[in-house]
TrEMBL record:
InterPro entries: Cyclic_Pdiesterase, RNA_CPDase. Its EC number is 3.1.4.58. GO terms for molecular function: 2',3'-cyclic-nucleotide 3'-phosphodiesterase activity; RNA 2',3'-cyclic 3'-phosphodiesterase activity. A motif (HXTX 1) lies at residues 39-42. It comes from the Bacteria. It catalyses: a 3'-end 2',3'-cyclophospho-ribonucleotide-RNA + H2O = a 3'-end 2'-phospho-ribonucleotide-RNA + H(+). Hydrolyzes RNA 2',3'-cyclic phosphodiester to an RNA 2'-phosphomonoester. Keywords: Hydrolase. Belongs to the 2H phosphoesterase superfamily. ThpR family. This is RNA 2',3'-cyclic phosphodiesterase. A motif (HXTX 2) lies at residues 121-124. It holds the Pfam family 2_5_RNA_ligase2.
Length: 169
């Protein structure tokens, strides 16, 4: 199964991000991520066998992140897949530390290694037709995050769907 670790926005922030996704879609076209799927990926694990997934679930349930506040204040794009996202204009040390700590744990469990570059972001659109984010209104939101979620990704005809497998303490 295809797994990744992420932070899930609380409901009020999810709704705000959904409204931004609507604005972005009106401007840029493409496929809007449904509100319930909005997330910040910390570690993409790829295909994981069932037995290893069970180990991961136990490990995650024993994790208790301290949490932090992430300021979301910029739009961004990943050109080739046509992704439009929101994220932070300056690197966030708490998120970077969380990501590094997670990968230490994941590597100890035998899961690959971290990507060379970690750009924390929340994907709002995929396959955007125009990456014209300069026309979008300014963003300034604060995300008070703490719990981690292990998600399973399914690919459907109209895009990915996610199932929550476990959460940290
Ligand atoms: O959180 P976002 O939407 O930016 O694009 C995939 C999604 O990113 C990414 O992992 C997240 C959950 O599916 N993803 C998919 N395949 C990947 C890969 N091979 C990948 N990230 C890195 N390597």
């Amino acid at each position: 199964m295809r797994l990744f670790l992420a932070l899930e926005p609380p409901p009020a922030l999810r709704a705000r991000l959904g409204a931004l996704a609507d604005l972005a879609q009106a401007q840029c076209g493409g496929r809007r991520v449904p509100d319930e799927s909005l997330h910040l990926t910390l570690a993409f694990l790829g295909e994981v066998e069932t037995a290893r997934a069970e180990t991961l679930i136990e490990w995650l349930q024993g994790e208790a992140p301290q949490g932090g506040e992430w300021r979301l204040d910029r739009w961004g794009t990943f050109r080739r897949p046509g992704i439009v996202w929101v994220g932070g204009s300056t690197p966030d040390p708490a998120l970077a530390a969380l990501q590094a700590r997670l990968w230490d744990g994941l590597e100890a469990l035998g899961h690959g290694g971290p990507p060379t570059r970690f750009v924390p972001h929340i994907t709002l659109l995929r396959r955007a037709r125009r990456l014209s984010i300069e026309a979008l209104p300014p963003v300034d939101l604060t995300w008070r995050w703490r719990r981690l979620t292990l998600l399973r990704s399914f690919t459907l005809d109209d895009g990915p769907r996610y199932e929550v497998l476990a959460r940290s303490a």
